[in-house]
């Protein structure tokens, strides 16, 4: 395998990389990884809120049905 690049290939590679960097600067920072992390954090937030609400309601119903009756 020959890993040497000609000057035309190297200049084309640098040009394409500069286009990708310029495109990345123009776009907002909502990358796929950022959206994935944001989605996981929202899911964990709703899960913990749901667990807290479920435990609170279970405690109230348990207290009402088994302690008061």
- Contiguous low-pLDDT stretches (5 residues minimum) are none
Largest sheet: none
Q: Look at the helices and sheets and give the structural class.
A: mainly alpha
Quantity of strands, as a count:
0
Total helical elements = 2
Integer average pLDDT = 74
The whole-angstrom Rg is 28 Å
Strand content: under 5%
Using the alpha-carbon principal axes, give the shape. Answer: rod-shaped
Cα separation of the termini: 83 Å
Helix content range: over 70%
Q: In sequence order, what are the helices and strands, one letter per element?
A: HH
What oligomeric state best describes the polypeptide chains here?
A: single chain
What does this molecule look like?
This protein has a domain at 23-68. 83% of the residues lie in helices and 0% in strands. The chain has helices at residues 7-26, 32-68. The longest helix is centred in the last third of the chain and has 37 residues, at 32-68. The relative contact order is 0.05. The model has no long low-confidence stretch (mean pLDDT 74). The chain crosses the membrane at residues 35-59. Keywords: Membrane, Transmembrane, Transmembrane helix.
Provide a compact summary of the structure:
The chain crosses the membrane at residues 35-59. This protein has 69 residues and is mainly alpha-helical.
List keywords for this structure.
single chain, mainly alpha, rod-shaped, 69 residues, membrane, 2 helices
Helices and strands in order:
Elements: H1 7-26, H2 32-68
């Amino acid at each position: 395998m020959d890993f040497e690049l000609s000057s035309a290939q190297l200049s084309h590679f640098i040009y394409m990389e500069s286009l990708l960097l310029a495109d990345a600067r123009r776009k907002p920072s909502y990358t796929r990884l950022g959206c994935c992390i944001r989605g996981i954090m929202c899911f964990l937030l709703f899960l913990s809120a749901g667990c807290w609400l479920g435990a609170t309601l279970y405690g109230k119903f348990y207290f009402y049905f088994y302690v008061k009756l």
